Amino acid sequence: MxxxxxxxxxICSYQNLLAAxxxxxxxxxxxxxxxxxxxxxxxxxxxxxxxxxxxxxxxxKYREFYVLYPKPRLVMALAFRDRVVQWAIYRQINPxxxxxxxxxxxGCRENKGTLAAAECLLNWIRIINRxxxxxxYRIIKLDIAKYFYRVDHAIVHRIYAEYTDDEWFLWLIDTIxxxxxxxxxxxxxxxxxxxPRSERLYDVGMPIGNLTSQETxxxxxxxxxxxxxxxxxxxxxxxxxxxxxxxxKGQKEAERIMALIEDYLSRELHLxxxxxxxxxxIGNKIEFVGFDITVHGLRLRKKTVEHIKNSLLHxxxxxxxxxxxxxxxxxxxxxYQGMTKHVNGYAxxxxxxxxxxLQRKEGMPDGTSTVAAQxxxxxxxxxxxxxxxxxxxx
Length: 394
Known about the structure:
The protein has 14 helices and eleven strands. It is an alpha+beta fold. It is globular.
């Protein structure tokens, strides 16, 4: 396999670091840490360059917090300086590595994502449903237990060594992943909530929220993708990060494939399937990447719908208090409107029509003198206004 060479020079070049700065700062230009870094931009970039070239770079302190949706996750955020370094790495290795991923790997890749993964599975279900023996097919729904917390660092090093022979780069990846000050891993069977910091593991796990963690997570499970596609010769196989589905014919064949995958994960990648993994008839509803999927189409899960409603009400409240402008509020609302067009989302569209009106509170500045006309994709019956400064989203 062709390998990456001279990564030290390409990653450490000033042009690459400057481009990485712009990527890391996108949509965050006015945050305090970004402003502080930007004040002495050239000096800070040369400082990063010197640390990387001399092998003296050390990862800064992590800020830890929990994200509760869609499920509780311990997120570790780096300082802006370290995010620039991660973008510098990503810009150089991702174009090379991404070309080697299978087509139906949808996690954290350009022009992929959860919707594309769900639509892929839906298309396969509909194709098979037209077969006379459709009832014999099964969907193997698999999920890896505590994936980000269980990734083995030694295996990560070996996999990256298959992509490059640059010892400097391997040192840099090890520096980021094998943090001597912050343990990322969880003992088997434990969750972030019931694992005290003193019991976290140093030799496994990656911080959720890092750009390099996303890339490494895809590289790690690309080994599984290749095993499923080229050894087991599975035609209907789709994966979004650690969530994947396989369609095969026959209950016994499904059980055989599931057992082989479970063995491969344990033996080669030191991972385990979660208890949520199961085998279902193809006619059953399947929950995958946030959607409920049947032959009739995609539906948003009830929990997802509630999250969308709460988010829209929150945005409407921020606009009412003049904490965001109209363009920002409309961008969020239109994003959710667009999502409902790809699923059976009529009820949610009606709810948005009836409950979301962007209106300033009395005495608050309007923030805009005119509002652009809604585009042809709007799905409400007609534009409506509410109050002097309000506009019903359409």
